[in-house]
Write a structure and sequence with these properties.
Length: about 210
Amino acid sequence: MASGRFISVEGGEGAGKSTNIEGVRARLQAAGLRVVVTREPGGTPLAEEIRKLLLAPREEAVCDDTELLLVFAARMQHVERVIKPALARGDWVISDRFTDATIAYQGAGRRMGVDRVQALRTLLLGDFAPDLTLLLDLPVDRGMERLAGRGAPDRFEMEDREFFDRVRAAYLQLAASEPGRFRVIDAARPLPAVQAAVAQAVEAFLLQSAAP
Ligand code: Z5A
């Protein structure tokens, strides 16, 4: 059966995920690959509805486990309806965020516990994981500066500085624990330098994927 490759792009607010995903898509397409670009939470009509529920500021306090289960509800729909079928067709999939975001935001940011989130991930997804994860790493202040003036903050963007410090630290810890899957990109540099580093990581992954 044909099998594509799965790339996730992670990082904190304003790290440049959306901006850099376009470059990754272009490089893969130039190599003659069929590419599906998607995102989390979201990626299917139902999962996009769950995204709206998750991001909308609301008066009712959202319980941590409610948030965690909504994230995974959207993810399972996305994995089963979009990601796995695309990979089975031989397409390459680029997802703006995947399970590492849940470890970082819910596990560390919300302090639900990284091990607890990992356990749920294993229960629902087994060993299904991205083949490559590009982590765009940026100091929290820089990300906030980049997003200043973008409009009303969503429910996550309303969190305090310490929340985002925990998110960043958790991402870096994940990357250190799985150096084979992660490529950490210093996203604080000017955009052309970041794009060059992303291109280099994708190039190396293409070579590695083509090796017998
Ligand atoms: N969430 C969660 O809690 N748990 C989960 O499991 C998942 C998600 C999957 C929505 O995600 C929220 O969901 C997110 C976590 C939570 N919370 N928040 N906040 P999202 O990915 O849709 O939202 P986001 O992280 O806020 O994305 P973003 O703000 O759009 O950031 P981005 O895509 O990384 O950045 P960008 O749009 O490409 O760039 C931002 C700006 O910076 C833009 O003006 C660029 O032109 C500029 N930019 C980009 N790169 C550079 C460089 N190198 N220099 C200068 N300026 C730059």
